[in-house]
């Protein structure tokens, strides 16, 4: 008996169907910078720590204005009211800048942030922009409260109006607040630890004062490197060439350098 063996004809595979518009890979869209800034603003203001810090700033400002209104019948120039609103703001607002960075690393949400936006430099710049927006808003509120308090002293306490205040004084007061905020942000980026950044930020002026009282040379060096001392002339509205040089030196050391090194380190630090 014989068996006939055969094989099925081999057919060539069908050519692939042409890709349609829906099958093509969609282009990757970059997250817009305004959206990143908006997210960082919410991180700064939608937290319990951020809100209580703003409340504390408001309480200090209102307390300082109340003292001026009661003292000497409110007979103070507008510049005194301006200092009463900007100095408490400059005292606590840098902590908001510190928390803008350190809270994300201490609560371990940085992994989520850098997963959604792997380019860490854009996130760092968004934090800088958000901090400046908060600082500008705080400065505007401080200026408005100073003007309102001086007007209330004239209307309610019968004080003599003294509205003569140069525009450079307003700019100097704004610079005082914003430079302190950027310094806090730089320390937060550099250390990424809330207690260490806060302690270092507030311990530096005290350390300069103690060292200057014990060592005369440290006092002379502090005239160039102590940021609080070099920023004091900003409220006068006019700085000499030497004062500008001192301010630039201290700002470069305590604001620009921590920000630059901190941003560089954020792009390379291990996220856990």
Automatic annotation (TrEMBL):
Indicate the segments annotated as coiled coil, or none if absent.
none
Check the UniProt entry and state the signal peptide residues, or none.
Answer: none
The alphabetical list of record keywords is:
Membrane, Transmembrane, Transmembrane helix
State the name under which the record lists this protein.
ABC transporter permease
The Low complexity compositionally biased stretches are 1-11
What are the TM regions of this chain, as residue ranges? 52-70, 82-102, 123-149, 169-191, 198-216, 244-266
Where does the record place the region Disordered?
1-27
């Amino acid at each position: 008996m014989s068996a006939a063996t055969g094989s099925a004809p081999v057919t060539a595979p069908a050519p692939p169907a042409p890709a349609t518009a829906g099958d093509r890979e969609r282009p990757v869209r970059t997250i817009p910078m305004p959206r990143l800034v908006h997210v960082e603003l919410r991180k700064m203001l939608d937290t319990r720590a951020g809100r209580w810090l703003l409340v504390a700033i408001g309480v200090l400002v209102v307390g300082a204005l109340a003292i001026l209104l009661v003292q000497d019948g409110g007979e103070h120039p507008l510049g005194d009211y301006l200092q009463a609103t900007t100095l408490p703001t400059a005292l606590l607002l840098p902590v908001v800048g510190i928390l803008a960075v350190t809270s994300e690393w201490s609560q371990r949400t940085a992994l989520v942030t850098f997963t959604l936006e792997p380019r860490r430099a854009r996130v760092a710049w968004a934090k800088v922009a958000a901090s400046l927006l908060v600082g500008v808003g705080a400065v505007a509120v401080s200026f408005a409260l100073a003007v309102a308090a001086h007007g209330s002293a004239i209307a309610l306490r019968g004080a003599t109006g003294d509205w003569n205040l140069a525009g450079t004084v307003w700019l100097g007061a704004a610079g005082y607040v914003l430079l302190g905020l950027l310094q806090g942000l730089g320390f937060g980026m550099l250390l990424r630890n809330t207690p260490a950044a806060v302690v270092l930020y507030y311990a530096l002026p005290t350390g300069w004062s103690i060292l200057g009282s014990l060592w005369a040379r440290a006092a002379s060096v502090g005239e160039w490197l102590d940021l609080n001392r070099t920023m004091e002339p900003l409220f006068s509205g006019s700085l000499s060439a030497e004062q500008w040089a001192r301010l630039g030196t201290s700002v470069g050391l305590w604001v620009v350098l921590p920000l630059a090194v901190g941003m560089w380190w954020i792009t390379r630090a291990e996220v856990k």
